[in-house]
Amino acid sequence: MSYPSLAPFVLKRPWLRNLLTPFAGWYSNAAGYRQLGLRADDLISEENEDVLKALKRLSPQEAYDRVYRLRRAIQCSVTHKLLPKDQWTKLDEDIPYLTPLIEQIRAAEKEKESLDTLTIIKGH
Amino acid sequence: MLSRTALSRGARLAARRQGGSQLRGYAAAASSSIPTSFAYETSDVAGVKVATRDSRGPTTKLAIVAKAGTRYEPAPGLTVGLEEFAFKNTASRSALRIVREAELLGGQLAAYHTREALVIEASFLREDIPYFTELLAEVISQTKYTTFEFQEDVERVLHLKQARLASDVSALALDAAHSVAFHNGLGNSLYPSPSTPLKGYLNENAIADYAGAVYNKSNIALIGDGATPQALHKWTEQFFKSNPSSSTSSVTLNSKASTYYGGEQRTSHTAGNALVLAFSGSSFGSFKPEISVLTALLGGQPNVKWSPGFSVLSKANAAAPGAKASAANLTYSDAGLLAIQINGAAASVRKTAQATVNALKSIAEGSASKEDLAKAIARAKFDALDASQSGVSTLLSAGSGIVQTGKPFQIAETVQSINGVTAEKLKTVAKALLDGKATVAAVGDLHVLPYAEELGLKSTVKTPRPYHILSRLDFASIEQRNNPPKQSPQHNPQATVKMVFAWKAAGLTYNRYLAVASRVVRRSLKDDKRVAAERRGEMDLRFAKWENGKMGETKNLADANAAASVESAKTGGVA
């Protein structure tokens, strides 16, 4: 993940996941980014090589929409207002569009590193 | 540590153990047949056409040859894109892992294309055949064709290669020659130039669709050089099982038959000068031994390094140092191009081209001596056998042969037919080439590089009389009748040709002409009619000249006419 998260720990334990799911919905709404029309992945810090590379791999449409959401949110922030309620990010809109790309890049990096440092054991 | 003698004894033992077949092979070679280890064994394994030959070396070369060269691509750049996507991320491993694993095993991976074939090739140590067979099967069936790889790798490399190609004038000239000679299909550019519009055609989705049409069992051949048939068949059966047996995409390959058109193309370029003179050559389908002997006779490549050589082209070259000329027969499945490539300084290229055409003309007149012919036949045979012995071109030619016709291009028949070329046949072929339409492609300094017409080659077919000239002629004659030309009609001889009457050309007046004609008619009559007619024809006219108001002497016209005709005969008929 691109930010520290307990999610993998929770997701591995069904009882914990079931317990926390209602709370997670409440938390996401309470975090306030949805009221600015943002998605969770818009909050990932850009100052990072992997994220920059992932941003380059976005499709043109996704990249445009992302910039639009960010500018709209900044405008809201400057004017100290929230968006009208019908423009808030809905639950089904809040999908991870950047995280899979970042994970792909991190996995490639990890593979490269392990291949770079592998030890060869001769089988013959 | 083995001693030298022990080694040599081992070698001798090994040779003996390999049995008589090998020995028989070489003995057969002496009687102008081919050792069996040169020939590919073909078979059908799990629907895949597999060809192997085992030279018993320590390394193996394994290649997938697909019928997917530039002539088959439905849109420009797809073959190149597919080539660049070879050994990229697949569903089960990443591009990086493929490369690192191949490195660990000491293998080499390569992908390249020709006008007809796309080749994905791996060279490796003999015992690693299972790994690389699996890899090749995976590359053609499980590559992911991702967007980011297209943008970050394929396109980047494509632009670099395009930039390199843009300054390679000889490649540009050869490409131009193909496009003029074959138009679409074989004439497709081998590599898209920087000015080729690729935008709507080349993207990862189009490449994936093309891959679906190309990488299926009916369209590929697996060629192993240095692998035993048993091993290759076993692993092919295991790993190629899941490959589709026919096209899985909606894209259809452009498989139009090739036609030779010929023509001329000229391109300005600052990076150098290249001229290609090309003629319809021999193909895989219909091998013409005369063409390969003619190619060898023209030659160009010296037999001894640092020497100019003694072939026809090297002699043509000698007059103009600074240019290099060489002849090659570029063979394709259903067409061929006998191309003479000349590179170098513009003036030298021009001179060499002229000398080359003159040499070709003298060959067409039968100037090639017996020794030249013997030399050319030997060279052609050597070229054919040498090409089949060493690496790359064999895999390619065997693979192309299998993909196109179902059997590899075997050299045995080739060599036999080359032996049968006579001076007469060579002369006929050279003449036919010169009489047919030539292909001329010039790239470079067009101010100096010659046109086909200047070289004495036909690059266009002569039509009997084009329509527009005819109409202009008619118009000119009408105008001339209305108002005769004042100045000399020399400037356009064709437009002022006039019909001249025979009597006028003979220098007679119209009266004399009538008199002669009627006399002849009268004399040819039967006797009874003739007497009557001659009496009718007798004239008794008298005339007199009037001078100063006084009538002169009266003369008989008949006498005067006779006197005049005698006089006209004396003066040469200007009466």
UniProtKB/TrEMBL annotation, chain A:
Q: Which GO terms describe its cellular component?
A: mitochondrial inner membrane; respiratory chain complex III
Where in or outside the cell it occurs: the entry states:
Mitochondrion inner membrane
Q: Which GO biological process entries does UniProt record here?
A: mitochondrial electron transport, ubiquinol to cytochrome c
Question: What is the membrane topology listed in the Swiss-Prot or TrEMBL record?
Answer: Peripheral membrane protein
The cross-references to SUPFAM superfamilies, in alphabetical order and at most eight, read: 14 kDa protein of cytochrome bc1 complex (Ubiquinol-cytochrome c reductase)
Q: Which InterPro entries match?
A: QCR7, QCR7_sf
Kindly list any coiled-coil regions of this protein. none
Q: Which residues cross the membrane?
A: none
Q: What is its main location?
A: mitochondrion
Alphabetical keyword list: Electron transport, Membrane, Mitochondrion, Mitochondrion inner membrane, Respiratory chain, Transport
Briefly, what is this protein's role?
Answer: Component of the ubiquinol-cytochrome c oxidoreductase, a multisubunit transmembrane complex that is part of the mitochondrial electron transport chain which drives oxidative phosphorylation.
Family assignment?
A: Belongs to the UQCRB/QCR7 family.
Q: What name appears for this protein in its UniProt entry?
A: Cytochrome b-c1 complex subunit 7
From TrEMBL, chain B:
Q: Which UniProt keywords apply?
A: Electron transport, Membrane, Mitochondrion, Mitochondrion inner membrane, Respiratory chain, Transit peptide, Transport
Which superkingdom heads the taxonomic lineage of this protein's source?
Eukaryota
Q: Please name the GO terms that the record assigns under molecular function.
A: metal ion binding; proton-transporting ATP synthase activity, rotational mechanism
Q: Where is the Peptidase M16 N-terminal domain?
A: 50-191
Pfam assignment, any one: Peptidase_M16_C
Q: Where is the Peptidase M16 C-terminal domain?
A: 203-378
Is Hydrolase tagged as a keyword?
no
- GO terms for cellular component: mitochondrial inner membrane; proton-transporting ATP synthase complex
How does the record classify its membrane topology?
Answer: Peripheral membrane protein
SUPFAM superfamilies, alphabetically?
Epsilon subunit of mitochondrial F1F0-ATP synthase, LuxS/MPP-like metallohydrolase
Subcellular location per UniProt equals: Mitochondrion inner membrane
Q: Which PANTHER family match?
A: CYTOCHROME B-C1 COMPLEX SUBUNIT 2, MITOCHONDRIAL, METALLOPROTEASE
Family per record: Belongs to the eukaryotic ATPase epsilon family. Belongs to the peptidase M16 family. UQCRC2/QCR2 subfamily.
Record protein name field? Cytochrome b-c1 complex subunit 2, mitochondrial
Which organism was this protein described from? Xylaria hypoxylon
